[in-house]
Amino acid sequence: MGFMAIRRSRKHYIARPKGSSFKRIRPHHIHITAATLLTIGAVIFLSTGVFVAKKTMVVHGPNPATVMRGLAETKGVTSSTATTAPASSPSPATIAKPSSSLPASGATAPALASLVTAKAYGIAAGGGLTSLSQQELDLYFTQLKELGTTWVRWDIDWNVVQPQNQTHYNWTPTDRVANTAKKYGISSLAIITYTPKWARSSACVDSPKCRPADMQAFGKFAETVASRYKSSVTHWEIWNEPNYKAFWEPRPNSHEYAELLKAAYLGIKKVSPSAIIVTGGLAASGNEEDGSRSPLTFVTGLYERGANAYYDIVALHPYTYPASTDYIAWWNSWQQMGPVRDLMIAQGEASKKIWITEYGAPTGGPGNSFTVDQFDKFTYGSDHMSENAQAMLASQAIAGYSARTDWLGPFFWYSLKDLSSNRDNPENFFGLLRSNNTKKPAYDIIYREAHSLQ
């Protein structure tokens, strides 16, 4: 499909299709600060072994800085005490409950049935879909149908749609994706995200991950997008990983994001009152010196601003690799979902669900292959999981998800297919399918589970 290597902000470097918007790379989501990732061969020694942060493409996954700090603090011991979050993560009891009523804007709350979306599976595709030809999109959505998934998560990048000024639009790529998803009967979770240069804050003009200078301008764009696609898209995710510095520059700030969320919510509801608004999927991070914040801390900040009036669903990206979902530690983002849920209940919002809008693990790269819970000397940006380990993580995640569907909505795996067979970058290997379309062991796990719902 003509993929090329390219730098990406958060997950700092990545491979993406030519002409597409930047796509992040994760768990590598293990948040390593941008400065750390840009230090070639930076090595962090822990009592449990050695983690190495290299200048490579680490975009999807847990924040490396968080995992490394957590392992250093706990010395690799998995005990009940390891589940305690850092003191900077507030407890639900410390937050004053704000009003959750909607403003007098004419917007109406979504029907409860829409919020209690049944168990379902999707694929997180990111910005790459908008660069595909119609023939390539037909193949992609055919493969989604064969897999049995019923959702696809993809970017509507403001920086791509309106790159020049506020009056010029390029709708051709996004029209193609929205229409193709509708044609194949796949529900879209569309991410309205990022900032064109002309609309960025003066503090970070060189990056599309820079926050908008004017949140109302972003809200107007969201309104225009929702108006155009209201017949094909009903669920809108606002930004991507706003709690992570690589995706919200110059520094993550839950109060700033609350303003952007409000502007987008009111704009979308103005033209599509029954639309469902999803928070930007929150990265698997702790509270780091670069401003990155844990999901619990970030959602706490949203409640402090009363921003819960402007979303219907909370989205999380609980990447764990190389750890299992059951590894007991405060930095294990899968286990952070429970405290976020407790916070929502404490705020009187038990009816709102959490959606897992990204989860996965890479199976290739220039480094070594690891098994689940094998931490010693794992190098982020180089090492990866074996294909069997990826399958084990998929199985564990599905089991954990299935046991909590009373408060978890759809589960999105990142991603459908490897970007290429080039082993220079682990970001190329998050797929359930290899680049030659052959199936990895994890494919069959998702396939069986997805088809069991049909």
Could you characterize what this model shows?
The chain is of the alpha/beta class. It has helices at residues 34-37, 64-74, 112-115, 134-147, 158-161, 172-183, 215-229, 254-271, 295-304, 337-346, 387-402, 441-451; strands at residues 3-7, 13-17, 42-46, 49-53, 121-126, 151-157, 187-193, 235-240, 276-281, 313-316, 353-356, 369-370, 379-380, 384-385, 408-413. The radius of gyration is 20 Å and the shape is globular. Mean pLDDT is 83; it is low at 1-57 and 76-116.
| Series of H and E elements | EEHEEHHEHEHHEHEHEHEHEEEEHEH
Low-confidence stretches: 1-57, 76-116
State the end-to-end CA separation. 31 Å
Helical proportion? 25-40%
Give the beta-strand count. 15
Q: What is the makeup of the main sheet?
A: 8 strands, parallel
Query: Count the helices. How many?
Result: 12
> How would you write the strand order of the largest sheet?
9-8-7-6-5-15-11-10
Shape: globular
Strand fraction band?
15-25%
Salient structural properties:
three-stranded mixed beta sheet; alpha/beta; 454 residues; disordered N terminus; 12 helices; eight-stranded parallel beta sheet
Short description:
With 454 residues, the chain is of the alpha/beta class. It has 12 helices and 15 strands. Strand 3 and strand 4 form a beta hairpin.
